[in-house]
Design brief:
Rossmann fold, seven-stranded mixed sheet, 39% helix, alpha/beta
Length: 212
């Protein structure tokens, strides 16, 4: 039976909670793709994914769905690989953030790249939010930490978001996945052992929150 081992681990009642959960994933690249895979395999049925990108050859080192699909839509490709999910092919900018209805979702997973969107999303939906910070330029998955935004350290993106939130006099807490490991390169180097582990860590936090 497909979910028998998940049911054994979580119990019938808690597994039913996962099956009823409604989750939104923003960005399905090296982090978000693994979050999707983990949630889907764990029994979460109602998953909406949002991304505007197509696969590039440089994605082959870390992104689920890239193999054999260069030039194709990420969300449409993943919708074929994970039947039943809802794909939204949409550029995530501030205008979209203003118009989109986030209310129906139990959890919002931010694996997007745009800093301004991440900041505004946090201001509006921090109670439901799990945010991925910088996963690129790192090689040691064991350095990954789960924390809240104002307790992060050693990550440039986290620092920028903290500073902008403080300027806006925003002091609410929300969950982030980050790594204080020192960057190993200046360009956009990436390693699936870390980006994938970020996605799996997000999935674990999502499952724990849904079962509370």
């Amino acid at each position: 039976m497909r979910y028998s081992r998940c049911k054994t681990l979580f119990g019938e009642e808690d597994f039913a909670k996962l099956q009823k959960a409604k989750i939104l994933i923003l960005g399905v690249g090296g982090v978000g793709g693994y979050t999707l895979d983990c949630l889907y395999r764990s029994g979460v049925k109602d998953i909406t994914i949002v991304d505007y990108d197509t696969y590039e050859e440089s994605n082959l080192n870390r992104q689920i769905g890239a193999e054999g699909n260069i030039g194709k839509s990420k969300v449409k490709t993943l919708a074929k690989l994970y039947p039943g999910i809802t794909p939204i092919e949409q550029k995530m900018d501030l205008a979209w953030l203003e118009e989109f209805n986030f209310e129906p979702y139990d959890l919002i997973i931010d694996a997007a790249d745009t800093t301004k969107v991440k900041i505004e999303l946090a201001k509006r939906h921090y109670k439901k939010l799990i945010m991925s910070l910088g996963s690129a330029k790192r090689v040691d998955f064991s350095k990954i930490e789960v924390s809240t935004i104002f307790k992060t350290h050693g990550d440039a993106l986290a620092r920028k978001i903290r500073n902008e939130l403080k300027k806006a006099k925003f002091n609410r807490s929300f969950t982030v996945i980050y790594s204080p490991e020192e960057a190993k390169c200046k360009e956009k180097g990436s390693f699936v052992a870390v980006t994938g582990a970020f996605g799996l860590a997000i999935c674990s936090e999502a499952i724990k929150r849904l079962l509370k």
